[in-house]
Amino acid sequence: QVQLVESGGGSVQAGGSLRLSCVLSGNTAAQACMAWFRQLSGKEREGVAAFNKDGSTRYADSVKGRFTISKDNAKNTLHLQMNSLKPEDTAMYYCAATAWWCGNSFGPGDFSYWGQGTQVTVSS
Predict the structure, then answer these.
(1) Rounded-to-integer distance, Cα 22 and Cα 34, Å
(2) Bridge-partner residues for 40, per DSSP?
(3) I need a labelling partner for 24 at 20 to 30 A (CA). Which of 31, 70, 78, 86 fits?
(4) How far apart are CA 82 and CA 69, in angstroms?
(5) What gap in Å lies between CA 95 and CA 89, rounded to an integer?
(6) CA-CA distances (angstroms) from residue 34 to 48, 88, 121?
(7) Beta strand 67-72 with 2-7: parallel, antiparallel or unpaired?
């Protein structure tokens, strides 16, 4: 079992920045990939960024160049640095973990463990 707890969401104006964090506990060594997803009410959950155990990363085209995913292994914490935020980035953001490696595309169905989510709101 793996437990994930997100923090760092909030409200910012367009062009601003936020940093999300996700603390992992439990059987973390078995997780090959960790990722951030986001979801608007009534819409499908979409992958934002992924971090594989070897340090390789994946990004959705919509966030490339603006978001950076990283992991602090000493603290078992996954981060998502979000810069140049846009109103369309507004969503509930979720941290997730899976024993599978993440390829260029990664979907929510591949992930076994999820956090409770943290809300990000970007105003224009």
Answers:
(1) 10
(2) none
(3) 86
(4) 9
(5) 16
(6) 11, 23, 23
(7) unpaired
